[in-house]
């Protein structure tokens, strides 16, 4: 009953506002308030309004059939006689006789559907003025002048094809440089493809960014679209993006507009949170969440986290205790709300979540630096963090008065890797940070951490045994010129030689069959995968003679002439000179949990296509990374 009355009050309030605006614009003359004789020219009085007899109130059945039409500003406004309020308990009829009292409240007879129609018609659809609304013809936040792809790259792409391609990107990429390339392509300010809605174009890219662990980029993408233009797919992407960045309140403009009627426990809980933060009704929000708990709208832990977050907006500051003992796994909602309330889930749940939790934690400023550094050992290897960001993180740890017992010494070790006076001491600190390599993800993240420190080591024949690791570290940050300084010291056919043969800005030596055979002789990878990647990279970059390549491929029993639907697609994209489509298809072809899931055939077509469309730097770095990480 109270809810029904609330809807009636809302409808009457909205209609009153609309009618007031319409009437204020329809009045054509006003009576002068000056005393007689003060007007310079007597103004003819306006035609007095014609009095009309008040009509009998329409019945509720009649009211339901009335169409809801907007009030026109130029419509004539009739002024009727004041309606005398009837006596309590009686309803006055047209002939003045009072009818018998009724026990039923007349407001109850109003059709709820009619009220919903009133509210829906009067509610604004957009929260942005029309003159400030952004076009959906071009969406993205990374302009071409800032390193993005050309906007026209996607203009004539087939919408359903691109949509299917992006929707099929479900997992991580094996290549860190491939991740960086795909992130840049997805974040670029791009024209909406033919046959696609601009909001859905943003939603597709934000979804892939989320699955890559790029929560901040995904959030920036969904915010490129005005709230009133959101589609269902963009609402879902926004839900994932704002929860991943531990900011549920960012969803409030969306829940108030296009997602106001969205079903689902996560939307219900979000609306309750928004009630607390945007309307200042903390008690009402907590009451809604209490009802959700009684009804079992969502899992108990999900509602408790929402209560704890919403309670921070209430003056009552209700204490909510979070118990993780019955929780079997972390979900995006649980991770995001826990971080938003300043909580860190138990270690067992974090370990079970793996990289999914690390991507949330590494960018969460509310967590301790030690927790973020632990997450960085995963995020940096995937491409989420740059070498500079890693150094900044460790620098913050080193600047603490009482740094963590584990990460504080590592921060000091990184300082020594940069500023130790002796080259041997710097090299020892670098290798100490690398560790024993038992965890491949952490080992590669530490290469990223020490990229610039490795570049400060002066090339020396006495240190040539350390060259493969130093070169691999430098190339994680794209320091190809620094790496090339080692070219005259490394032995031909060794691991360091293979990295330089791929990463050098230009071909610096002839690659012969003997050199390749020498490289293979020291290859300890499974099924000669490192040698296969070396040949595929050299062929893709055009740095090996075709005859030499065929002979070495035969020795490796490798067929790089085989075609698939994907190889034909990426070759056609390269033929059309479309770097954006090549980058997307390259990302599609690099999906996997590790380089052992990659094939030399895929690597060859990726490197070749990237080089042909002008992305030579990315092609070289991906080829060198393949050899370094196997």
Describe the 3D structure.
Helices cover 53% and strands 1% of the residues. Mean pLDDT is 85; it is low at 12-102. A two-stranded antiparallel sheet has the order 1-2. It has 31 helices and two strands. With 630 residues, it is an all-alpha fold. Among the domains are: 1-21 and 110-122, no CATH class; 491-630, no CATH class.
Summarize the SSE layout with pairings.
Elements (H helix, E strand, L loop, with lengths): L1 H25 L33 H6 L46 H11 L15 E2 L19 H9 L8 H12 L2 E2 L6 H14 L3 H8 L9 H13 L7 H4 L9 H14 L3 H14 L4 H12 L20 H9 L6 H7 L1 H7 L7 H14 L4 H12 L8 H13 L3 H12 L5 H10 L1 H5 L11 H10 L3 H5 L10 H9 L9 H9 L7 H13 L4 H10 L9 H11 L3 H11 L10 H13 L3 H14 L1
Antiparallel strand pairs: 1-2
Helix pairs in contact: 1-3, 5-29, 5-31, 6-7, 6-8, 7-8, 8-13, 10-11, 10-12, 11-12, 12-13, 15-16, 16-17, 16-20, 17-18, 18-19, 20-22, 22-24, 22-31, 24-31, 26-30, 26-31, 28-29, 28-30, 29-30, 30-31
